[in-house]
Amino acid sequence: MNIMDFNVKKLAADAGTFLSRAVQFTEEKLGQAEKTELDAHLENLLSKAECTKMWTEKIMKQTEVLLQPNPNARIEEFVYEKLDRKAPSRINNPELLGQYMIDAGTEFGPGTAYGNALIKCGETQKRIGTADRELIQTSALNFLTPLRNFIEGDYKTIAKERKLLQNKRLDLDAAKTRLKKAKAAETRASSEQELRITQSEFDRQAEITRLLLEGISSTHAHHLRCLNDFVEAQMTYYAQCYQYMLDLQKQLGSFPSNYLCNNNQTSVTSLPSASSNVIGSSAMASTSGLVITSPSNPHDLKECSGSRKARVLYDYDAANSSELSLLADEVITVFSVVGMDSDWLMGERGNQKGKV
Questions:
Q1: pLDDT average, residue stretch 124-140
Q2: DSSP SS3 for 193
Q3: Is-contact 250 241, C-beta < 8 A?
Q4: Are the C-beta atoms of 304 and 337 separated by less than 8 Å?
Q5: 316 touches 283 (CB < 8 A)
Q6: Residue 347 pairs with which residues in a beta bridge?
Q7: Residue 255 above 70 pLDDT?
Q8: Cα–Cα dist 356/318, whole Å
Q9: How far are the Cα atoms of 9, 90, 144, 147, 225 from residue 218, in angstroms, in the given order?
């Protein structure tokens, strides 16, 4: 017998086996043939493996999204990984923001309060970017890689052996069906021999599959350790970010208070006189979309608190007749009124009165 004859006979045998399995499977679906059920323990193990695979995939994919929100970047990393090439290093978002802040601060002047603050913020953002990069690398190595190895390695082996078990089960049931249909003594003896062989092969494959499936418990234990590593990496990352921002806040807190005020609020600092205040212009407040609910005529407003002196920090041109135009460094009288927005005060200069 030459090699070609052997291959032809093997192909014919494989085709016959495939056809036998297909017929058995179809008859089972139509309720025309009996099906050998797996024992309950093996079924539970199969269910546990399938459940583990499903949730591992979900957790792995969502962790990837958490660590790298940009889908294009994830696709690029996946392609480089499949090509077994190192992905090019790219600047992350915190690092990019930090660089912009540093460049802007340098342009505005490191000696200015705003420029100095931008540079300090930029340096902190770059530190956060470095911590973010370390989190991604640590999580990929200690958490994502073990999960991916299970999906692409252990579970693929389980799925392969499970498919073999399904084929052996179909062969066994097909042999049982042929034995039931056998009438001649010679045919019956041949069918009984076939049944013994297929039963032995099925039992052997069921044992192999069971041993592999029982390893799922060890997989869970391993993934638990990986999860602890992931949590520790996150804890380190957030602790670093908190410390960086805490240090930054302390640095910014050392700036003069008149540089730190929000332009949407009235900034108040003490004058040499204990009875006087310094108030900032409300220019930004009047253009930031705030709705002023006080009456249009300032003379209709009822004074509800004592007046006090205040020094104006910035020039301001009144937006309408209800407001008072201001000049930097002038001292005016201010007081609060009922019904007026808390961001505003009434200002008085001689016989002129208006909101400030």
A1: 95
A2: helix
A3: no
A4: yes
A5: yes
A6: 334, 354
A7: no
A8: 9
A9: 44, 37, 17, 13, 11
Chain position carrying tokens 């804890």: 235
At 184-232, the pLDDT tens digits run 888 888 889 999 999 999 999 999 999 999 999 999 999 999 999 999 9
Report residue 334: phi and psi, to 5°. Answer: -130, 150
- Residues contacting residue 109 through CB under 8 Å, at least 6 positions apart: 115
Contact (Cβ atoms closer than 8 angstroms) between residue 326 and residue 333: no
91 Cβ neighbours under 8 A, 6+ residues apart: 99, 129
* Among 43, 32, 7, 69, residue whose Cα is nearest residue 213: 43
Max Cα–Cα distance, the chain, nearest Å: 127
For residues 355 and 294, is the Cβ–Cβ distance under 8 A?
Answer: yes
β-bridge pairing 276-279 and 268-270:
antiparallel
* Contact of 312 with 324, CB cutoff 8 Å: no
Task: Estimate to the nearest angstrom the gap between the alpha carbon of 46 and the chain centroid.
Answer: 31
**Alpha helix segments (H runs only) across 30-151:** 40-67, 71-82, 93-108, 113-139, 145-149
Please choose, from the candidates 259, 164, 244, 144, the residue with its C-alpha nearest in 3D space to the C-alpha of residue 206: 164
* Token reading at 101: 């802040």
From CA 206, how far away is CA 39, in angstroms rounded?
10
**Strands of 308-312's sheet, edge to edge?**
268-270, 276-279, 308-312, 331-335, 346-349, 352-355
The three-point CA angle 326-266-327 to 5° equals: 15
Verdict on whether the full-model pTM lies above 0.85: no
Q: Which amino acid is at 162?
A: R
CB atoms within 10 A of CB 18: 12
Distances in Å between the alpha carbon of 301 and those of 30, 141, 230, 335, 336? Answer: 88, 68, 61, 11, 10
Q: Among 251-265, 303-317, 340-354, where is mean pLDDT lowest?
A: 251-265
